[in-house]
Amino acid sequence: MSEPAAPDASLADTPYSHKGLTYPLGRAGPGPGEMIAIADGVGWTRSPVPGSLNHINLWILEDGEGVALVDSGLDIPPAREAWEALFAGPLAGRTVTRVICTHFHPDHLGLAGWLTERFGVRLWMTRGEWLFARMLTTDVRKEPPAEALSYWRAAGWSEDRIAAEAEKGWGRFASVVSPVPVAMVRLQDGDRLQIGARTWRIVVGSGHSPEHACLVDDEGGLMIAGDQVLPRITSNVSLNLSEPEADPLGEWLASIAKLKQLPDDLLVLPSHGEPFTGLHARLDALAAGHHGRLDALHAHLAEPRRALDCFSILFGRKIEDNSLGLATGEAMAHLRWLEVAGKAAREVREGVHWYRALPEGPASA
Ligand SMILES: [Zn+2]
User: Fold this and answer.
1) Fewer beta carbons within 10 Å, N or C terminal of the chain?
2) Within 13 A of 209's CA, how many CA atoms are on the CB side?
3) CA of 209 to the centre of ligand 1 (A)
């Protein structure tokens, strides 16, 4: 964007509201290689993502002599082409000053290394996210580690399904992520970044990823939310192989409570879907959704169940093979939350984790 501009008029005249959220720019969004100015010095573009996700939103911030990029897209040819179209079109003649990544997931980080190398600039991330990315891009092996097999067995996967998964090898993360820079600038909760005319405050959340950075411009009323708050879909919250005794859903719910301390009138710029206002309504709906599923799950555990036996309760639909991993992680996270809360007990039989409900009430002490 050579000149900061007002919101595109053809989009701005179709605002709508749904479930307590208002989408001031309507349903439309920029295509790959296109950029829409959504506020002074803040550009919005999209990068292609295969599957139902379809796209990731990327943000381009005026930063003195050039632009700072927030998130980068997957390292796949059409996403590289989208950047080339931007650099030949809306960003022609501009340089990039830095690349900021909200978290390590490949659709956010994938092209960060490629971009930082191209422009000779730094990557800015939280330490937890950067370390995860460095770890996962170097951990490539022919077969999954024994811990992975144990994890799938614990969730109730059949030996056949485990064998089929093992066939795929280990280290797919690195296949869609360009080399992650070996040095970075660390972001921490509460940091204030001066980027062009705006000051962005780092607000860290957890549960979807270890140390997810949101950027909040208090004065300008903007929030770059990453995957920490999405308008229509719920962010995946999984119990991960790396910390099988953690409580990611507890961290996620605590992060929702933390984000509710932000002003309700921020324009939220999410990584998927369209910009919206109604932050508190969305956070309340997310928390209520998880608590509703936890209550249903607790009732379902009158008989001992494995994670695999809980999909119908948690998702209300059959889980296709290609989403089995995410569904398993999500089910394990909900079961683990009930266990940590003292509402369920886990019994391990031949490596399989069976959860059953414990009676509710203060008498459990
Ligand atoms: Zn993510």
Assistant:
1) C
2) 26
3) 7
